[in-house]
Structures are given as structure tokens and as C-alpha cells.
Amino acid sequence: MRPLSLTGITSLVALGAHPDDLEIAAGGLLLQLAAANPGLRVRYVLATGAPARQAEARAAAAAFLPGAAITFDLGALPDGRLPAHWDAVKEQVESAAREVRPDLVLAPWSGDAHQDHRALGTLAPTAFRDALVLNYEIPKWDGDLGRPSVYLPMPDAVARRKVELLHTHFPSQAGRDWWDDEVFLGLARLRGMECRSRYAEAFHTAKLTLTLS
Hints:
Elements: E1 11-16, H1 21-36, E2 41-48, H2 51-64, E3 69-77, H3 86-99, E4 104-108, H4 115-127, E5 132-136, E6 150-154, H5 156-169, H6 181-194, E7 199-204
Parallel strand pairs: 1-2, 1-4, 2-3, 4-5
Antiparallel strand pairs: 5-7, 6-7
């Protein structure tokens, strides 16, 4: 299967429900996008996060997107309660869509078992109708990993750099029983096997437009 290229991406909107969602799910993609697209412009949007966690997210975004021009919209809605704040979440997503015409949007998957992730995953494709929306996956206790259809191979160095940066920039999560190299690299190894690579990240997409030009 011949791959499509993400070289030439000039603008990215990255949507996350919580600090660390984007980096856990798509840290390899962020690293490779920034390396392949000098001058990349990024709108980095989070719906929840206390000040300390927002500070982690800012530092992580800079590390995962070196050289990119990043603007932040960091919300402080209550964790685990986004469906109850639907209007506020919808306005945050649609505000990003009004301000940016991105080539690519990263958002959670609408089939995710976490209610906050589902809310953003449902809103993203309706707000960004003219952009490619890739819906990422996040490993968790619920065991909700699906059958993705889009893969991004990661060189070994990128996969290990991703894990290194996760540990460096999200120390608040270090005590969690699932926060370790085996979870992050294990999922990446599985997705890599599925696309004939050693490591990979995987995504869902509801709609993709092809062109011959």
C-alpha cells in the first residue's frame, strides 16, 4: 500500500480534552510533522486543566513541536464533565475553526470510552469540514482500542524520543500504574506490526478527499 505524505502541512489544529492526551496519542506525529514542515503553525486547544497541568502542556507542546509557531487556547473546564458543559466545549472548538483554516486537525476518536474524549471527537468533524481530521487513540483502563484505518510509522528514535518527552514533561502522571514505557511502546509496536513497521501511531478518520493534482 503506497503511503500518503504529510509533508506540506502548514497549519495544524490540535484538540485535546486533557493535558497529555495529544502527546500520548500523537506525540510521534507531532515530532515528525514539525521536522518535515518548517514554519508549521499550530493552534493547540485543551478543554480542561489546572494551572500546573496547563504549564506541563505548554512545555510539552514546545518540546514535541520544535520550531513551530504555537498559539494556545487552554480551557479550565472540569475533568470528566465535558458533556455537561457542551456549549462551552462547542464554542472552544468552533472558535478555533473560525480563527484557523488548518490543513490537518488532530482530535480524539468519537468511539473513545472516555466521555470528555467523545465530546471533542464528535464536535471536530462538524467544525472543521474542509480539513483532514485524524482521530487519535489513547490507551486506558476501559480497553476501548478500536480498529483504526490510518497509520503513521515511527522510526525507533522517534518512538523512544516520544516516550522520553512524556516522562520529562508530565511528571504529575508518573505515579499512575499505566504510565510506563511498556504501555506506550507496546501499543506503538502493535500498530507498527499492523502497518509493516516496527513502531507506529494509528488514527481513525471519517472522511478523506483524494485529488490527482
